[in-house]
Design brief:
The protein is of the alpha/beta class. It has two domains: 142 residues, 3-Layer(aba) Sandwich (D-Maltodextrin-Binding Protein, domain 2), CATH 3.40.190.10; 96 residues, 3-Layer(aba) Sandwich (D-Maltodextrin-Binding Protein, domain 2). The protein has twelve helices and ten strands. The strands form three sheets. It has a five-stranded mixed sheet. A three-stranded parallel sheet has the order 2-1-3. Strand 1, helix 3 and strand 2 form a beta-alpha-beta unit.
Length: 258
């Protein structure tokens, strides 16, 4: 009992509520990092809700649930918040990784992407790994961006992982503090719509899924979300949302990335 109380007190684990309890409560709690890209989920009034928010609200409507979006400060805070019982689902550009699979269960992919090297004028696109390895590359600790950079052999002294959020890394690129970023292709496409001076270069690493995550003790919720995502991906609604939030070129780039 003392050991269990100690673990719960640290906020490391809490009893998960599965779909029946969520249905009784009437609310699906969705954990969203404040540095989540708005094309995925936006919590700002007067803005488009985002691809994943539209999907989640569609799922909730079918289940006659309300959606409560619970913000956490940074991307790294999402899994601890889920394990502490502060939410039911993690959403908003959440990349699947083997390390994360040890802690949470994932649904089917909302979509799959490749990591891409991003530069900004006047720097030209990066077309080879040798070019990338010679640049100062900005990233976020603990992210799939950082893992990909390390796996392709960018020297440690050329990696700047001092940034707290994705917005900070992008600002560093705009200010010339770093020469390149490596980020998910979906995220990069959205940033290009806001900043036409950005270039997409080399695609690196294997395809990566972007999915929703639930507690390992919520299998019914995972199955229900999984079926919803899988069915939606088969129809025209998903393609419409991708183009709406990521542009006409998005479907072609995402297909190429696979």
């Amino acid at each position: 009992m003392l050991l269990w109380g100690f673990v719960v007190g640290l906020g490391m684990v809490a009893a998960a509520e599965d779909l029946p309890a969520i249905t009784t409560r009437g609310t699906l709690r969705v954990l969203v990092a404040m540095d989540t890209q708005p094309e995925a989920i936006s919590l700002q009034e007067g803005t488009a809700p985002g691809l994943e928010r539209e999907m989640l609200e569609g799922f909730a409507a079918l289940r006659r649930l309300k959606v409560e979006f619970i913000p956490v400060p940074l991307s790294a805070d999402r899994i601890p918040a889920l394990l502490a019982g502060k939410g039911d689902v993690i959403a908003g550009g959440f990349a699947v990784s083997e390390e994360r699979r040890k802690q949470v269960d994932f649904t089917s992919d909302v979509f799959r992407f490749r990591h891409v090297v991003v530069t900004r004028q006047p720097h030209p696109p990066v077309e080879t790994l040798d070019e990338l390895r010679r640049l100062r590359v900005g990233t976020l600790k603990g992210s799939t961006w950082a893992t990909t950079i390390a796996e392709v052999g960018v020297p440690h002294e050329n990696i700047d992982d001092s940034y707290a959020g994705a917005g900070d890394v992008l600002e560093a690129l705009r200010q010339g503090k770093v020469g390149a970023l490596v980020m998910g292709s979906g995220w990069a496409l959205a940033e290009m719509r806001r900043d036409p001076l950005l270039h997409l270069g080399l695609l690196i690493g294997p395809p990566v899924g972007r999915a929703w995550a639930v507690h390992k003790h919520a299998p019914q919720l995972r199955q229900a979300l999984d079926e919803y995502v899988s069915n939606m991906r088969k129809g025209a609604s998903w393609s419409r949302l991708v183009v709406k939030y990521y542009g006409d070129i998005a479907l072609e780039v995402l297909k190429k990335g696979q």
